[in-house]
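ASSEMBLY PREDICTION REQUEST
Request ID: AP-0331
Submitted by: J.K., bench scientist
Number of chains: two
Total residues: 577
Priority: normal
Notes: Please return the full assembly, not individual chains.
Input sequences:
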Amino acid sequence: MLPEWMVPEPNRTTSCSAGGRRGRRSFLSKSIQDMKKALCEELVTGHWAKQAGLWQRLDPGVKLVSAVLLILLAGMAKSLGVLLFLWGLIVGLMLLSRLPVLTIQKRVWGFIPLLTLLAAVPGMFNIVVDGSPLVMLYETSHPVTWFGLSGPGSIYITVQGLWAAMFLVLRVGISLSVGILLTATTPLAALLSSLRVLRVPTLFVMVIEMSYRYLVLLLTISIEMFDARTLRTVGDLPLRKKQELVGSSIGALFIRSLTLSEEVYMAMSARCYTGEVTAREKYRIGRLDIAWISIIALISIAVTTGGFVFV
Amino acid sequence: MCKGPIFELDRVCFDYPHGGQLFKGLELKIMSGEKIVLLGPNGSGKSTLLKLLCGLVLPSAGTLRAFGTEITEQRLEDNRFAREYHQRVGFIFQNSEVQLFTTRVWDEIAFGPLQMGLDLETVRERVEDVMRLLGIAHLQDHSPYRLSGGEKKKVALASVLILNPEVLILDEPTNGLDPKTQRWLVDLLLALNHQGRTIITATHHLELAHVISERALVLSEGHNLVYDGPTAQVLQNRELLMEVNLIDAYYHVHDQERHVHYYIHG
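STATUS: Completed
Returned structure:
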């Protein structure tokens, strides 16, 4: 028999009352949703990796080594010409790999190098690194003295400082473009297994893969937990209560992940895993890979011995 | 293939790490080529019994013999023995998510044979064969995250079948599957059994039990083995099925007549 409080009220209207304050989606739940979306896109789509472009046809190991080499060259180059050449090369490779070059370049140069520039700004002034004046900002014949320490007589942007900041921004932008070229044209699984080319231990690669795989699952569980909680929450809760709920959710998720890890280990043992991981599919180096290796080797030799690097 | 008893459990007990005991002196013998269904309500210990048979957990008392050898912790710590044992006994988990731990279907299926030390060419051939058998060749580059429930189950099955096990143990294999996929799975299990493989399935899906098994083991809510005999016979034993909470009954009246209906917990 149902208790009395469960019996429907006779005069209750069928429609829900409206006009209350609209609740905002919590920061935490929004962040988790966004993280999940980003990870799923990363894991699931692989849209650009399926295009019939130049870099998509290369062996993932060859691509990984080339990318590391290009980043190293960009990091060591001391000539603007070399940096511009490398940037042009990467843009060309993006075009040949059928990637949306304009969108990628807008993202690359629009945000992260700006942050780098902000970090590099102090280095442009003579008070950090001395050099030839380019733009004078402040000059006085009577420097201010505080507690016996005298201030600078002038503050200006140096030619060397601006040059160094520009190089830093260019290097970051080029490295970022190389990273995007590599990750966009290589499926995640292939990219991870290609880490073996760099002698990364197989067990380590497997741990990264598994972390990536289960991150999405745990994020899905977290979202479901938050959704379930939201559906049972009426009105706005005090901050302390919210903190308690988030804390208990984190605890519950931790326990679930522990159970999951135990079961995953059992599933691995049931399929002959004894603690040693055997390497998986080996990639085959084709003619295109050899041609690309030759090109990248020529570029590296030309750049390093051509007087542009370490000068 | 082994022709005698595959599993022999002699006065087996199992203690949960957090307290509580299952199977007080369980006696059981499973012969090669049998089709067995393990029935019982939720929490009766079906999954634990299956994990015992698979060597994933060990009895706290009594002995478990498989293929004529006693299965002990020391034996399973021997990598060579553990590999061979897990190759001979395949286990399909109830939750496919735990079984699909790589980022690509191909890698998932190839995991077992690579651990066994098979050469890459043989592994490639086997992966192709098993994917063709299960009709999942088009999924080989997919991430397990993208797969539907039925596809995940097929990949999990492929990852075990590729090891060519003598015994196939399945924990609630039809959970979350649509009727067509359920039928496909039943047909596959029957075909595998026809070839001589031992099939042990845990389920509380009674309609499935009579199709996939000839022998039934029934566990009670008190974790005891209360029936071991022909499946057809236990499915007629309404009293026992009600006692172990596998079916329930309700009454209703129409046309001045009182009816009783039985329904299956699912």
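REVIEWER COMMENTS: Chain B touches chain A through 40 residues (CB under 8 Å).
SIGN-OFF: pending second reviewer
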